[in-house]
UniProtKB/TrEMBL annotation:
Known function: Magnesium transporter that may mediate the influx of magnesium.
Membrane topology: Multi-pass membrane protein
Organism: Salvia splendens (Scarlet sage)
Protein name: Magnesium transporter
Matches recorded under Pfam families: MRS2-like (PF22099)
Compartment(s) where it occurs, according to its Swiss-Prot or TrEMBL record: Membrane
Keyword Ion transport: yes
Similarity remark: Belongs to the CorA metal ion transporter (MIT) (TC 1.A.35.5) family.
Amino acid sequence: MSFLALRSLDVKMAQPFGADYSSYYANGIGRDNARGPGFPGLKKRNHHLGNRSWILIDAKGNSEVVELDKPTVMRRCLLPSRDLRLLDPLFIHPSSILGRDKAIVVSLEQIRCIITADEVILKNSVEDSVLQYKYELCKRLEVSRDNYDDLPFEFRALEVALEHTCMSLDAQTKDLELDIYPVLDELASSISTLNLERVRRFKGSLLALTQRVQKVCVEIEHLMNDDGDMAEMYLTEKKERRDILTDSDVCNLINDAKFRSKSAPVSPVGSSSGVHRLQRAFSTMSSTKHGSFLSSSSSGENIDQLEMLLEAYFVGIDNTLNKLLSLKEYIDDTEDLINIKLGNVQNQLIKFELLLRAATFVTAMFAAVAAVFGMNFEDTVFDEASTFNWVLVISGICCGVLYGLFLAYFRNKKVIP
């Protein structure tokens, strides 16, 4: 009985709290508080699923601006979420080129796009580099419709991205060279605080540009050294193989079904079960053949075409990197020259200070003689005025001889020339 009483008491106490709890959330107050205090710079999970502006460029050079969310792009190109993170402008990632099953993810400076066998999905932006890439790619695709081009669509899109990135970085390097060489020459001739501050700013810009160029150079070199990654980028050939494989499997299964229907009659139940077995066999056979065929063809892929394309732009970006390294060496040489000049000036000041201290010591001895004779004591020297003049002359000669001995000692030790 006591247990039942306590149980009923708990129920009665829980009812008002449950009612208040329901009304608390029904009014929306609890929902707002249940979300947490919230951080102003923190994005909610559903914000990542919002539509974003993309530019679609097809193989004929036609372009249009569309709104696509992240899951749609992932399903359309069969890409994982981590690959799309490289295209997010809010994240700062090094330059990268990733080859996937049905797409190439390109993130080179401001150009961030997804290249498939049929289209280019370009991140829409108001920057000049994105607009120039779009214009140049559409122009080349329109021209290639009339002229035969042995490059597939994905390589032409990749070539425009590489060309634009390499030319942009090389142009920035040339502008930096034109700005920094006169400042370094002026600094070498006249050392001033203004010139030192200008060189410091240019050196920071040079370091940042060198890192960007080096990232692009390393990424291209990494692709050239990996045959598997280059084979993954032949999207058009892989698509044609998939289409041929699918058509051949369908024809084989249809012929097999016709042969079986002619050879032996079956009941309706048996025919339906046979259809299901054929469907399962088709799915199993197509998946098995698809994987084996693509893997065998990818392993023996002729990657010379892509390798020559990458090598051409690797030479260009490596030349740009060498320019930046030469410019950095020139800055280091100028800094060494400035340090040598400053060290020489410091040595001259030290020599001057040494001579000044020696002269101060000699002058102090002469002043000590005058101080001794300035005391109040009786001596025959003070009887005649000309006698004290001899004291001054002898004291001056002794101080001069002492200073000459100092100079001879310094020259003997090669402290002064």
